[in-house]
Automatic annotation (TrEMBL):
This protein's encoding gene: LARGE1
Main location: Golgi
Protein's recorded name: LARGE xylosyl- and glucuronyltransferase 1
Pfam family, one: Glyco_transf_49
CDD domains documented for this protein: GT8_LARGE_C
Family: In the N-terminal section; belongs to the glycosyltransferase 8 family.
GO MF annotations, alphabetized: glucuronosyltransferase activity; manganese ion binding; UDP-xylosyltransferase activity
Membrane topology recorded in Swiss-Prot or TrEMBL: Single-pass type II membrane protein
GO cellular component, one term: Golgi membrane
Intracellular or extracellular location(s): Golgi apparatus membrane
Keyword Transferase: yes
Amino acid composition bias (Polar residues), ranges on this chain: 44-58
Keywords: Glycoprotein, Glycosyltransferase, Golgi apparatus, Membrane, Multifunctional enzyme, Signal-anchor, Transferase, Transmembrane, Transmembrane helix
Amino acid sequence: MLGICRGRRKFLAASLSLLCIPAVTWIYLFSGSFEDGKPVSLSPLESQAHSPRYTASSQRERENLEVRMREVEEENRALRRQLSLAQGRAPAHRRGNHSKTYSMEEGTGDSENLRAGIVAGNSSECGQQPVVEKCETIHVAIVCAGYNASRDVVTLVKSVLFHRRNPLHFHLIADSIAEQILATLFQTWMVPAVRVDFYNADELKSEVSWIPNKHYSGIYGLMKLVLTKTLPANLERVIVLDTDITFATDIAELWAVFHKFKGQQVLGLVENQSDWYLGNLWKNHRPWPALGRGYNTGVILLLLDKLRKMKWEQMWRLTAERELMGMLSTSLADQDIFNAVIKQNPFLVYQLPCFWNVQLSDHTRSEQCYRDVSDLKVIHWNSPKKLRVKNKHVEFFRNLYLTFLEYDGNLLRRELFGCPSEADVNSENLQKQLSELDEDDLCYEFRRERFTVHRTHLYFLHYEYEPAADSTDVTLVAQLSMDRLQMLEAICKHWEGPISLALYLSDAEAQQFLRYAQGSEVLMSRHNVGYHIVYKEGQFYPVNLLRNVAMKHISTPYMFLSDIDFLPMYGLYEYLRKSVIQLDLANTKKAMIVPAFETLRYRLSFPKSKAELLSMLDMGTLFTFRYHVWTKGHAPTNFAKWRTATTPYRVEWEADFEPYVVVKRDCPEYDRRFVGFGWNKVAHIMELDVQEYEFIVLPNAYMIHMPHAPSFDITKFRSNKQYRICLKTLKEEFQQDMSRRYGFAALKYLTAENNS
């Protein structure tokens, strides 16, 4: 009963307020329109009101009064609607049911009231307003350029996806590097109800390149200034985020704040939480002009349609030109210019509660933004030190960040029930292919793996490559999992040319790899190694998918198809480039074979020449590869002939032949049906043969397989009868497919299989 009485009293008070508002409004408008006997300007260019040109006439006064009156009347109508909804919802609230829409957090007009009411934003449902519809699309804009930013933005996206209950539309202003990486990532991530559009950041450079900028973000740190021009003209509002943001709540709550904007408010910003703009951090510190402490632009709410009408482009350009005459450059990129504009036009800003941008920079006052974990909404790592920043609660913030950093992104592929997703051709085709498989088939899991879409992050680390002038360059291609990571340094020491690696890792393992690589002087000194992360999913090791990913992203005309367990001989890179010219690979269909050997010793004095290798072969220190367990795999190389050969020689294909070869980059891909152990290379060599590649053995090249523990997949092959049966079935199906595709030319493979 007490709750009901309180509800009635609130309703009565609200009803009385509706009767009083019109009269009070007229008094307020009449008195508020004059200050010291002079009219107050309501122009968007309020800062220029001192000019006679902008003196308001009586006609202008009446127009401004009419505008204000219309705004108040609109607020009254909204309040009436709210009261009518409250009447209908009152019983539901008493039962404890929750609305399906999300409410806004209350913002304040000044920082003192803000600090006094921090927790008020997390108040009970009584003060909530349903302003974000269940399936309303939330638009998010992010500027992202380069390899590191492309990696950092994934953690931001994960934190948003984890909490979200609305469709999302990401607008990514990206350079060519970031677009290649993120387009592949989102395409293979296949998250429902998420759309991604890219805008070429390189084309926008001319818009801001005239502004000198000392900030570490470089020219890309200025591009938020031109979003009104860059984003679609029909996009009315957008949330703009830095890449070093982590969300701790549903982004719909932030989107709801747009409904609090009034009058000419077009920018939603949180006050800067350091003393930077107060100019007292060090002697002779001279920051750009700002209103009080200024505002941080790591999180921005932009009303794009109103900004365009206000001629935002002209506004910020004129301000920047004027201030640069004295400041010479920006220190905090776009943030300096935003603050200079706001200093002149404070009415543009709706000040967000500071928990929407808890800034973990040096000398921050962010601790005043929260009293409890539940108060946190958005964490901003805006110090160059990032996770190493000094803060009383930095361990908590760091753990929250690391949670999303290592979180399995595959778990974020969940549907938004009740919200229709846009038709995705790739997704529909995938579902159709999977539906055609027989789930009762004992080899169903093998067949299903062929259609699994693995989330892929290309160029996980910085990559640089300068093409060779003679067009003979060769990339070493390989794939690996976490248990072969120790081979990377050794391969980099043996092969100085470009390398393309596909790594099969979980999200947590990817971060372990990152720390390992960043701690290695050998790996950090090499910028011509492309590391492509293929995230784990399913029970099989997708060996041929990994090879295809590594092959697809090479920058050279030729590639050396190797495995991670092999160390190439010293100088092999230069030898292969010379062989490319000698054998005229550019104009012929040849596959150059690098003979493979192995050692059973973990510590090996690596042979520096062919003569030294032959000596070790004779002493039993080395063997031809798989001599003890699978002779047929490399027997056609003809090692006896290789011992004395001084010129390249041709060999013929034989059943189960699987040499390591150098080919042109346009060679056939590996067949994805073969996963784990068995027939993955054999099938590829068979396809090269049917396409009439010549197999040429190089007389002075070699590679050595280093010992390691048996892989999980080879253990399954040896111990699981059903595994071997399914592999045999897949082999037969592959040969039948070859016959259909190549006709009479493929018959010899069926004959060879029957005779072997």
